[in-house]
Amino acid sequence: MNRDDVDWQGYYPAFVTPFTEAGDLDLDTLRALVDHYVAEGMHGIVVNGTCGEWFSQTPEERRAVAETAVERAAGRLRVLVGSTAYTARETAQYARHALAAGADGVLASPPPYAKLFPDEVIAFYRDLDAAVDGPIAVYNWPHGSGVDIGTELADELADIDQIVAIKDSTPDADQFFATSRRVRDRVRVFGPYMSVRGLEVLRTEGGDGTVGGGSLFGRPDPAFWESYWRGEYEGPREHAVASDRLFPKLWLPGGWAGKYGAYQSQLKALMTMLGQPAGHVRRPRLPITDAGSLRTMRAVLVEEGLLAEAAEQ
């Protein structure tokens, strides 16, 4: 199996898992968010990843989220299901369930907390490959796993049979583009191509897609890729400039947290301001309640043309 066995490309929002204010799983809002992304023309979604707060869900809830997302998508967009856990055995259990439910593929980071050595990372993915029958995406998430999958290690992982993609969230841009160059002949690469630098790499070397935290821009995110596929670059260039301007105003370098709260907390607050279905965070995450922070976040959205006016929060 390799990159040609899947058609994953374009913009895939990292899907938030909506909870009620009391902390219960909110599947109705989850369904509404799937519908919203379909209406905005997204090419796929990634559920139960970092934005999906998988770490605060029970195993039963993780399975319910996967099943509900796949059922609601109903083939209208691709659904990849995050299966990260502390062992390959547990990760494989989530992966097999997701694939049986109809997911297009699964993704997993190296186990969090353990800080695996390179040979252990390879063994982990080989064990996962042996226990799962379906396409797998490697998720390089150094802030969560304590492991940054560099270019040499990614090169080895790309040769594992059912690994067909990598979602590379390294904060090291030079490393990302080196990895993209090295492994794209075998696996699809998702990462920060929707920047001014990334667009130039797309034009000269190619690239497959981006998994972004939700979609604050909405329709312009998938439109970036559709224009690129047509060989039209002016629209993508304008979007890249806008992205490069917006995100430093809201997110810390490396994209691992918001300037005003945890990544998931800030993302859900911004989505709510934009009228997108989002729900609430669940402890241990806390909502952003500081009025000044909320006003500043809203003002950024207004300044960047994503909201019409800075209404009181």
How would you sum up this structure, described in words?
The protein has 313 residues and is an alpha/beta fold. The protein has one domain: TIM Barrel (Alpha-Beta Barrel). The chain is built from 12 helices and 8 strands. The chain has helices at residues 27-39, 59-73, 88-101, 118-131, 142-145, 151-157, 173-183, 196-204, 220-229, 234-250, 263-273, 291-303; strands at residues 10-14, 44-47, 78-82, 105-108, 136-140, 163-168, 188-190, 209-213. Helix 4 (118-131) links the parallel strand 4 (105-108) and strand 5. The radius of gyration is 18 Å and the shape is globular. The protein starts with 9 loop residues before the first strand and ends in a 10-residue tail after the last helix. The mean pLDDT is 97. Belongs to the DapA family. Pyruvate binds at residue 211. The active site is at 139 (proton donor/acceptor), 167 (schiff-base intermediate with substrate). This is 4-hydroxy-tetrahydrodipicolinate synthase. Pfam families: DHDPS (PF00701).
Rg over alpha carbons: 18 Å
Structural class: alpha/beta
Strand tally, please? Answer: 8
CATH class: Alpha Beta
The major pleated sheet works out as:
6 strands, parallel
Spatial separation of the terminal alpha carbons: 50 Å
Q: Which strands sit side by side, in order, in the main sheet?
A: 2-3-4-5-6-7
Number of domains: 1
Uncertain spans: none
CATH architecture: Alpha-Beta Barrel
Helix content: 40-55%
User: Order of SSEs, N→C?
Assistant: EHEHEHEHEHHEHEHEHHHH
Strand content: 5-15%
Form type: globular
Q: Mean of the pLDDT scores? A: 97
Task: Please identify which CATH superfamily we are dealing with.
Answer: Aldolase class I
> What name is given to the CATH topology?
TIM Barrel
Instruction: Report the total helices.
Output: 12
